[in-house]
Specification:
473 residues, alpha/beta, Rossmann fold, N-(1-d-carboxylethyl)-l-norvaline Dehydrogenase, domain 2, Single alpha-helices involved in coiled-coils or other helix-helix interfaces, 3 domains, two-stranded antiparallel ribbon, 20 helices, 9 strands, 8% strand
Length: 473
């Protein structure tokens, strides 16, 4: 018989993430409880035979086992199931208890749930969790937002179970209401962009330089020891060395070239468009995953338009590898900069009270987009907490300038040789427009007024104007 009112933390959803996170909590000396309506998952948790982890198949018994104020975290699929679980929890919890949604919920849903639960007297936290299964077990990056008092209650636990960088835990209060899930959404958008850049790098190495698998592995191995050091480069290095037992080729070559997505990249693009803010490198990453799904259509097109790619360099051309590294560094900076700019704009619009230096600090470890470069981002916002865009920071400016030759060479040569590098290309185009004192969009305004009487503004004059264009001349 399990003792009531003993457990400090409760988890609903005992999949790999939920189970690993509970074990992480238990490792740090806390008694915790887990609930799932799948009895096999409950049995698996109890079969760990750990004195301070208790699994339940009955939600009433689960709730009774928790200390007050009771803290319950959900790790269940985003959407209607979250609302269903909250409804069940309201039957077994009391006012003042804490509910944490640790899944990838859309920030608009979190906003609604926060307000609804606040009216009913419950404390709600929407918390992004990054790091995957390994992160949950050994130390994730966590982005909680919502009720600040509730966060302060659970902060000691979260700080202990988080990853640590230079002694600092990779968790902090992000901001009000849905701030935590908004930050996690942008994190995932940046993740999409960097993964697309890596896949395009692979294409340049394979099709542009005619490199073999082992040589590609060595490139990523070398890059991960330098300024590109990051989790995503690290796992790419490992993928280019992985062969299943009994085979003499990479598992990678058996994997379909059709990329799935859970929607958070698309949400990032949509949120940016709602705020009239450009994040083209994230947009193109989402679009390329979508295009990859049209396999049959691509096969048909490949017959109609045969591959005309030619190889200029070879795998011994270390100079071009350096050029490609420059292009990647430039584009990676752009991916982070566009994501951080979105956070800056969202902070204005939604009054989240975000601290961009704190976000960069939390992302330095535990999460999927952790990288050496995040130290530069952290330093930039630490120096100027009101920095609107990373491109305006002196150190970032120098980094971009140093890598102009690489990005321009890679994009131009790829275009000439028929190698698709859309994320590299859009990183360069975004920069060239960003630094443009005058864009050609005055013509677009004239066109809109011509066909739709949408009016336009004039330089040096106040007000809006309309012209009867057909009456001219």
């Amino acid at each position: 018989m399990k003792k009531e009112n003993k457990n400090a933390f409760g988890m609903i959803g005992l999949g790999t993430m939920g189970s690993n996170l509970l074990q992480n909590i238990a490792d740090h000396g806390y008694n915790c409880a887990g609930y799932d309506n799948d009895s096999e998952k409950v049995d698996a948790l109890n079969n760990l035979n750990r004195e301070n982890i208790h699994g339940f198949s009955d939600i009433n018994d689960f709730a009774k086992s928790l200390k007050s104020p009771k803290t319950v975290m959900m790790l269940v699929p985003a959407g209607k199931i979250v609302d269903k679980v909250i409804e069940e929890l309201l039957e077994v919890l009391a006012k003042g208890d804490i509910i944490i949604d640790g899944g990838n919920s859309h920030f608009n849903d979190t906003e609604r749930r926060y307000r609804e639960l606040e009216k009913k007297g419950f404390q709600f936290i929407g918390m992004g969790v990054s790091g995957g299964e390994e992160g949950a077990r050994k130390g994730p990056s966590m982005m909680p937002g919502g009720n600040k008092e509730a966060y302060e209650t659970v902060e000691p636990i979260l700080k202990k179970i988080a990853a640590h960088v230079n002694g600092d835990p990779t968790v902090a209060y992000m901001g009000e209401r849905s701030a935590g899930h908004f930050v996690k959404m942008v994190h995932n958008g940046i993740e999409y962009a960097i993964m697309q850049l890596i896949s395009e790098t692979y294409e340049v190495l394979r099709s542009g330089l005619n490199m073999k698998d082992e040589a590609i592995h060595k490139v990523f191995e070398k890059w991960n020891r330098g300024r590109l050091q990051s989790y995503l480069i690290e796992i790419t290095r490992d993928i280019f060395a992985y062969k299943e037992k009994g085979t003499d080729y990479l598992l990678l070559h058996d994997i379909k070239d059709e990329a799935d997505a859970k929607g958070t990249g698309k949400w990032t693009s949509q949120a940016a468009k709602d705020l009239n803010l450009p994040v083209p490198i994230i947009d193109i990453a989402v679009s390329m995953r979508n295009l990859s799904k049209y396999k049959n259509l691509r096969i048909s097109a490949s017959r109609l338009y045969p591959d005309s790619r030619s190889v200029k360099h070879d795998d011994k051309d270390d100079g071009y590898i350096h050029t490609l590294e420059q292009a990647f560094y430039f584009s990676m900076i752009s991916a982070y900069a566009q994501g951080m700019h979105l956070l800056y704009r969202a902070n204005e619009e939604y009054d989240y009270k975000l601290k961009l230096d704190l976000i960069a600090k939390v992302w330095r470890g535990g999460c999927i987009i952790r990288s050496k470069f995040l130290e530069n981002i952290y330093a930039a916002y630490k120096e100027n907490s009101n920095l609107e865009h990373l491109f305006l920071n002196d150190d970032i400016h120098k980094s971009l300038a140093e890598n102009f030759p690489g990005i321009r060479t890679v994009v131009s040569e790829a275009a000439l040789r028929g190698i698709a590098v859309p994320a590299f290309s859009v990183a360069l185009s975004y920069f060239d427009n960003f630094r443009s004192k005058e864009m050609p969009t005055n013509l677009i305004q004239a066109q809109r007024d011509y066909f739709g009487s949408h009016t336009y503004e004039l330089q040096g004059k106040k007000g809006t104007f309309h012209t009867q264009w057909k009456d001219m001349g």
